[in-house]
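Chapter summary example.
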Amino acid sequence: MTAANPTRPLVTKVARFLMLTDKIEEARGFYSGVLGHDEVSRRQRAVSGPAELSVFKVNAEQHIEVIPALRNPANDRLIHIGFATADSRKLRHYLALPATTPRGVNT
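The structure predicted for these 107 residues follows.
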């Protein structure tokens, strides 16, 4: 990897993501009923006020989190996404480089 032409470390998979919904029962039906993922956790979490968080297990290393806190259907539903990589320090360094840092992303 050179400063002029950095090589991005391999992203091996999506580890998790957090979605907002305004219809939690429909989301549960989709992730459990349609996709077949077990809801492994349901708990309270503060996201701009208290909200119930549902966690669906995809496999031992991947999960989906859903919060019924969508106030406007026109807003983004994907809140955050987590990636797995073989070298998190190198990926963090790569993402912090001026040429690769997207606006609004915390590294």
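To summarize the output: The radius of gyration is 17 Å.
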